[in-house]
């Protein structure tokens, strides 16, 4: 069974310590006050479990006054799984163990916090051997009349092999999830929009190699032709709306019209990259595609999709929600969780085309069946939908048109995950065995992708190949011991900036081993697989250091989940209050039509934005700062020839180089 790993490295916890042991169910987490210039010491609580058979464990930590991370290790300190959710309230965890023996359940403080918690192990039972019963165990945390629920389905040969619903579609009125409950599938919707564009091309009404401005002429001429193809495969260079709009003080449930998105893109001064050069996931592109469908057909997008795609495929439970005020009969209401419990969450505005589809497991089975039968569109159109393009440098992409391509345990996959504010979804189709899995939920903490792959392993195990050796290594099993000279480890030590996302990680040598620490995150041990390549212990990610001919480290590459980030060495930068004052002032961004006030508060640089809590900035390198909010990963201040600060450029993962001028 595949290990449960739901978190990116930046939120992961250190391997097991055994500083405190016990079998009690509550405790106080205490850490030492950090000495100036040294890191604080994290002290986890450990609970030793002796299991006589493979087990399913489900529990909850009430984070009364401390944010915790829950991790399970076996007796050899091999990583089994980890949970790090909300900062307060219930931290839900669940694990499946593959073999009997001793295990360590670790409850550790996030960062350097102290405080009180209560641990409640709700279920500890033998792991089911029947796939259907094991699937029920997998969904246990989302089962009951007091929790948002889920709907999952396993398909084979056009038929639903297994389906299961659990939990509630609406907590206010005690409406349970059923197979007929429509659920928001977020970005899984993109493949439907792509299919619509290909249908229109098949009808001779457009070409995917047309210039976008042929259909939306009000978009600016930025010196290079952006084709519909570049919208379909995320190589267009346009700003990402849901990364850009929060920079204005907008929140996901604030009103945003489709025409507002176009107005935003009209103010873009240059493309972030040449068309076809770089893959950069872009919801803006699919919002434009929906608008193009409307302009070409003269019909509203939801109605055209209903008549030309949903009805022909008998997807009778599917609807496009054009905005969060549209009533979707019987739909699953979205929920998020905080210290006060579950809260109602709406949907993103202006998402249709990029998202906005409400549907069911039954209807998604009919959609996946069309991958095989091509009853709608024909085999050529379906083939084009799932055929990847190439980048300008000739590299073949792993994204086709609104759908990702991949491989799982030896089988090809067509897949896409989806997330709105609270809804979660995952669709995986295995074309070689005509089978698929769907997982849908109205619970923001539902790990749809992980559960979908778990279900695939349960029901298609006879068709799957063995796990790759590198997966076992990444999960913490040191099958091969590599000794890296200490001189090299010391050369690698230092601080590095993740280009484009503003995170700074520090790598240092402790007891002859390289360890990694990102700001505000726990320490991770690095396991060498060669002199220059390391894996993060307990995380499926690798780090490769790059050296020049003289042996000087020039940077590194962090690879994870099919993506890669370039790491740039940075010099230590710790400006005092007087140095920070030179950045204080008011700044205007014409592109966003937004003003930022930058002030020094309690010896910290702070950004004030309308409708947003004060954002604390943390120094990265000279004149560059980062923050913990996702839309402001990097602020790089700009000076004139006399050294006076005249502005800054703000960036995040999908919107870069947004210019603010000092006023």
Descriptive keywords:
4 domains; Jelly Rolls; disordered N terminus; eight-stranded antiparallel barrel; alpha+beta; Beta-lactamase; globular; Lipocalin; 13 helices; nine-stranded antiparallel β-sheet; 40 strands; 663 residues
Description:
The protein is α+β, with helices and mostly antiparallel strands and 663 residues long. It has four domains: 127 residues, Jelly Rolls, CATH 2.60.120; 247 residues, DD-peptidase/beta-lactamase superfamily (Beta-lactamase, 3-Layer(aba) Sandwich), CATH 3.40.710; 93 residues, Beta Barrel (Lipocalin); 86 residues, Lipocalin, CATH 2.40.128. Helices cover 17% and strands 35% of the residues. The chain contains 13 helices and 40 strands. Strands 35-34-33-32-40-39-38-37-36 form a nine-stranded antiparallel β-sheet. Helix 5 packs across helix 6 and helix 8 packs across helix 9. The longest helix is centred in the middle third of the chain and has 15 residues. The N and C termini lie far apart (58 Å).
């Amino acid at each position: 069974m595949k290990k449960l790993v739901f978190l990116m490295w930046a939120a992961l916890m250190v391997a097991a310590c055994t500083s405190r042991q016990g079998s009690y169910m509550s405790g106080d987490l205490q850490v030492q006050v950090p000495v100036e210039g040294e890191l604080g010491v994290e002290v986890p609580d450990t609970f030793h479990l002796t299991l006589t058979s493979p087990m399913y464990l489900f529990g909850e930590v009430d984070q009364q006054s401390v944010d915790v991370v829950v991790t399970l290790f076996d007796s050899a300190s091999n990583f089994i799984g980890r949970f790090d959710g909300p900062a307060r309230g219930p931290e839900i965890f669940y694990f499946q163990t593959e073999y009997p023996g001793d295990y360590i359940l670790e409850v550790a403080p996030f960062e350097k916090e102290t405080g009180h918690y209560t641990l409640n192990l709700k279920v500890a039972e033998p792991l089911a051997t029947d796939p259907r019963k094991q699937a029920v165990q997998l969904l246990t945390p989302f089962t009951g009349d007091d929790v948002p629920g889920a709907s999952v389905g396993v398909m084979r040969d056009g038929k639903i092999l297994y389906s299961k619903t659990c939990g509630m579609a609406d907590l206010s009125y005690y409406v349970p999830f059923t197979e007929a409950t429509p659920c928001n599938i977020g970005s899984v919707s993109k493949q439907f929009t792509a299919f619509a564009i290909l249908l229109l091309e098949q009808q001779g009404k457009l070409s995917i190699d047309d210039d976008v401005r042929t259909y939306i002429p009000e978009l600016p001429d930025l010196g290079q032709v952006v084709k519909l193809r570049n919208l379909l495969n995320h190589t267009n260079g346009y700003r990402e709306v849901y990364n850009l709009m929060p920079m204005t003080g907008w929140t996901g449930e604030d009103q945003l019209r489709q025409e507002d998105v176009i107005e935003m893109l009209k103010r873009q001064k240059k493309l972030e990259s040449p068309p076809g050069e770089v893959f950069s996931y872009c919801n803006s592109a699919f919002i434009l595609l929906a608008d193009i469908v409307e302009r070409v057909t003269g019909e509203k997008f939801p109605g055209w999709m209903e008549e030309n795609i949903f009805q022909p495929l008998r997807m009778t439970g599917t609807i496009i929600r054009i905005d969060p005020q549209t009533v979707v009969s019987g739909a699953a209401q979205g929920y998020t969780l905080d210290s006060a419990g579950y809260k109602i969450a709406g949907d993103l505005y202006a998402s249709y085309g990029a998202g906005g589809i409400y549907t069911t497991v039954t209807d998604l089975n009919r959609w996946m069946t069309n991958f095989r039968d091509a009853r709608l569109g024909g085999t050529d159109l379906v083939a084009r939908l799932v055929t990847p393009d190439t980048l300008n440098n000739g590299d073949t992409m792993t994204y086709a048109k609104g759908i990702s391509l991949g491989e799982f345990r030896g089988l090809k996959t067509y897949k896409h995950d989806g997330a709105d504010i609270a809804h979660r979804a995952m669709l995986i189709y295995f074309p070689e065995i005509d089978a698929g899995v769907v997982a849908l939920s109205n619970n923001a903490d539902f790990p749809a992708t992980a559960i979908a792959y778990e279900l695939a392993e349960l029901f298609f195990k006879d068709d799957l190949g063995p796990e790759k050796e590198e997966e076992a290594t990444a999960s913490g099993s040191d099958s091969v011991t590599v000794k890296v000279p200490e001189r090299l480890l010391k050369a690698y030590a230092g601080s590095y900036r993740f280009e484009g996302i503003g995170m700074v990680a520090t790598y240092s040598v402790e007891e002859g081993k390289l360890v990694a620490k990102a700001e505000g995150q726990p320490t991770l041990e690095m396991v060498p697989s060669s002199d220059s390549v390391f894996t993060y212990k307990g995380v499926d990610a690798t780090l490769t250091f790059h050296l020049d001919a003289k042996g000087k480290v020039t940077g590194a590459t962090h690879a994870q989940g099919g993506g890669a980030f370039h790491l740039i060495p940075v010099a230590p930068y710790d400006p005092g209050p007087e140095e920070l004052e030179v950045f204080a002032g008011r700044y205007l961004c014409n592109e966003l039509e937004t003003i930022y006030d930058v002030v020094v508060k309690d010896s910290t640089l702070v950004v004030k934005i309308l409708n947003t809590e004060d954002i604390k900035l943390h120094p990265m390198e000279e004149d560059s700062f980062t923050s913990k909010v996702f839309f402001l990963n990097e602020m790089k201040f700009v000076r004139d020839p006399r050294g006076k600060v005249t502005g800054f450029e703000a960036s995040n993962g999908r919107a870069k180089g947004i210019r603010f001028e000092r006023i």
